[in-house]
Amino acid sequence: MARREARPPASREVRLTPRRMHCVNCEQRLWVAYHAQRTLMTFRGLVRLTLVVRRCRNRECELYHLPYRAEEEGAWALPHGEFGLDIITVIGQLRYGEHRSIPEIHQRLESRGVTIAQRTVTDLLERYEELVALHLADEERIKARLKQQGQVILAIDGMQPDVGHEVLWVIRDCLSGEVLLARTLLSSTQKDLSALLTEVKEVLPVPIRGVISDGQQTIRQAVARCLPEVPHQLCHFHYLDEAAEPIFEADRHAKAELKKLVRGVRPIERSLEKGENEQTDAMRSYCLAVRSALTDDGHPPLCASGLKLHNRLTQISDSLARVEEKRGAFLRP
Ligand SMILES: [Zn+2]
How many Å apart are CA 160 and CA 214, to the nearest integer? Predict the structure, then answer.
């Protein structure tokens, strides 16, 4: 169905890069082929995903030219969907966990800031139902596709948008993007996850060449137990990014407050334009140091811009205090 209004611009940009740098089949380097774009509605607002897509360039390889998309993409959304898997999970939970009607679910989503048509809620509930009803053993289309590519790389993700609710576990193949199994579990122990992995392993028509996850302890244990020979790659960035979100917000606020304190640097610089002596030169250098501190951004989640600015301003202020101690305060020019 066509949308009547254009969507507002995305409030958040996320770039996803494949963790794998080498072809799983021939071990040769994967080359960046192109970037794909998707815009998703999620509980954290409208997100624009930029996906780096790589390809194997070895003509002899079975996976030659097959696009390899960022593994994490499937944790955000199902293929071709416009709504995040977080929203689909909550729709399923409200319907089957709390027995809510479609209008009630619609209202609940709207109250959480999700712009969605009631008709779309029905469609997404169908997606959820298909997902949890999926039995790989009966899916000839998926099995044929997997046979053609000769192997799979599994990704395992637990979706729990609301704390305290059951978790929707999704196991998918990173080469084809196909979901292989999805189950909701009340507890997610090593035993529970082992059972899911075993179920997938038993019906797969091809070998598992790798596993990718965020590295939760129970997942690690389950993979080590069920797939002892398979390399397990951890995808820490996403995990870290999620965990750092509240810190990032606090840091952004702190930075804005710090910036207010040094707002007067431009007028001071202007008043220094006329003077040409040792003192004005020194003051100009201090102004420059303040301005370069203001533009030196950190890269979240590993480096907080506000803390960085605080460090740099503290150094400048300490230096000024040392000057004052030795030579007395700067005189107004
Ligand atoms: Zn290859």
Answer: 14
pTM of the model: 0.71
How many of the other CB atoms lie within 10 Å of CB of 298?
A: 16
Q: Ligand 1 mean position to 223 CA, how many Å?
A: 25
267's enclosing H/E stretch is helix 265-272
Give me the domains of the chain, ranges plus CATH numbers.
Answer: 12-132 (no CATH), 138-239 (3.30.420.10), 245-331 (no CATH)
Rounded distance from Cα 61 to ligand 1 centre (Å) = 5
For residue 267, report the distance from its CA to the centre of ligand 1, in Å: 60
pLDDT reading at 47 higher than 80: yes
Distance of CA 8 to the CA centre of its chain: 21
**Using CA atoms in the order 30, 32, 36, 42, what is the torsion angle rounded to 10 degrees?**
60
Q: How confident is the model over 184-206, as pLDDT tens digits? A: 998 889 999 999 999 999 999 99
CA of 25 to the centre of ligand 1 (A): 5
Distance 157 CA to ligand 1 centre (A): 26
- Picking from 205, 219, 239, 195, the residue whose alpha carbon sits closest to that of residue 75 is 239
Distance 22 CA to ligand 1 centre (A): 8
Q: Residue 28 C-alpha to ligand 1 middle, in angstroms?
A: 6
User: E strands within the chain?
Assistant: 12-16, 30-42, 45-56, 68-69, 152-159, 167-173, 179-185, 208-213, 232-234
Q: What is the mean pLDDT of residues 277-291?
A: 87
- Measured in Å, residue 152 CA sits from the centre of ligand 1 at 13
Cα(278) to centroid(ligand 1), Å:
65
53 CA → ligand 1 middle, Å: 14
Name beta bridge partners: 48. Answer: 13, 39
User: Is the distance from CB of 55 to CB of 30 less than 8 angstroms?
Assistant: yes
